[in-house]
């Protein structure tokens, strides 16, 4: 109880802002990966280098997708809690 009183609780506005910022950040990351993918093969002659870059970008893209999925699940929990609160 004493420890909890030292922390300021987040408001719904704070949470909404974090959600908005997270969505912008994830979109920016996806765009950057897409841009990197188009730039990664320009001027590269070696098939091994192309394959390596493709694998690295696939890994990064997969990681971003997993982060987005986790974010969506967390946001769904928050929305469900808000709906449950309104019902009460």
UniProtKB/TrEMBL annotation:
Top-level division of the source organism's lineage: Eukaryota
A GO-annotated cellular component: SNARE complex
UniProt keyword annotation of Transport present: yes
Subcellular location(s) of the protein: Membrane
Keyword terms, alphabetized: Coiled coil, Membrane, Protein transport, Transmembrane, Transmembrane helix, Transport
Membership in a protein family: Belongs to the syntaxin family.
Protein name per UniProt: STX18 protein
Species assigned in the record: Anthoscopus minutus (Southern penduline-tit)
Gene: Stx18
């Amino acid at each position: 109880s004493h420890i909890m009183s030292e922390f300021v609780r987040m408001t719904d506005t704070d949470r909404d802002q974090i959600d908005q910022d997270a969505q912008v950040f994830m979109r920016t990351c996806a765009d950057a990966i897409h841009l990197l993918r188009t730039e990664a093969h320009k001027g590269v002659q070696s098939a091994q280098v192309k394959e390596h870059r493709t694998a690295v970008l696939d890994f990064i893209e997969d990681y971003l997708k997993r982060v987005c999925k986790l974010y969506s699940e967390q946001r769904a929990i928050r929305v469900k809690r808000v709906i449950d609160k309104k019902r009460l």
